[in-house]
Amino acid sequence: MREELGTLIYESADGVAVVTLNRPDRMNSIGGTMKEDLARAFFEIAKNDQGLRCVVLTGTGDRAFCAGADIKERAELRRTGPEYFMAQKATHALIRGIQEFERPVIAAINGVALGGGLEIALAADIRYAAAHAKLGLPEVRLGAIPGAGGTQTLPRLVGASMAKELMFTAAHLTAQEALAIGLVSKVVEGSVLDAAMETARRIADMPPLAVHFAKRAVNAGMQGGIDAGLEFERYAAGMLTDSEDRREGFRAFVEKRKPVYVGR
């Protein structure tokens, strides 16, 4: 399955979808219809993609995952504070929607991921970075702040003190520096997309209900605290106890064969 939208490409096969940000002449920056296209890719196409088990999010080429907002395009906009406040609600809904998407999302950061580009990557469950990638939230240098969730998602990954330092100084991190603070979980010397696809295929082999509930349980604890997380964990474990996939997993283990999961 392949669909080309205005600023991205959606491709899927064997349970794994690849969403590729596709504005290479503008370093895959956020402009044009990219926000609308991302919303359609995740909440219409991927949501209705039968058999989907995992999504990989990347950018065209090897220069940029996403360089952030298209500054040339943005500089021509004139918005009042209230207008921006209302418009940004849709951006936050997009980021939260990716965070809470039913299937795992892996960001294959194939080049620079700055500003809004990094904020998109922060919405993923797993982040791999190419060895030459650069990452950062440099908005304060332009008299702004990260406005697509970065002030909330980055501290939850690297701690409040480190997040503040990175934002206050508009620092650009190397891939290795990002790995050292837990911003990414792997640095890849070769093809970061290949590495992400390998992990995505491993996830696709797992029982989808268990993966889904594991993701939701982690998110519940990170967003609502440990008590809320434990409460959801107990609920999720109970929901899975009598599922077809759990019974199949146990049978396959006893019979020493590969399980066949159906997502029920």
UniProtKB/TrEMBL annotation:
The protein's matches in Gene3D superfamilies, at most eight in alphabetical order, are given as: 2-enoyl-CoA Hydratase, Chain A, domain 1, Lyase 2-enoyl-coa Hydratase, Chain A, domain 2
Keywords assigned by UniProt, alphabetized:
Lyase
InterPro entries named in the record: ClpP/crotonase-like_dom_sf, Enoyl-CoA_hyd/isom_CS, Enoyl-CoA_hydra/iso, Enoyl-CoA_hydra_C
SUPFAM superfamilies found in the cross-reference section = ClpP/crotonase
- CDD domains with a match to the protein in the record: crotonase-like
Per the record, the similarity remark reads: Belongs to the enoyl-CoA hydratase/isomerase family.
Output the PANTHER family linked to this UniProt entry.
ENOYL-COA HYDRATASE, MITOCHONDRIAL, ENOYL-COA HYDRATASE-RELATED
Listed name of the protein: Enoyl-CoA hydratase/isomerase family protein
Q: Which organism is it from?
A: Pararoseomonas baculiformis
The lineage is: Bacteria, Pseudomonadati, Pseudomonadota, Alphaproteobacteria, Acetobacterales
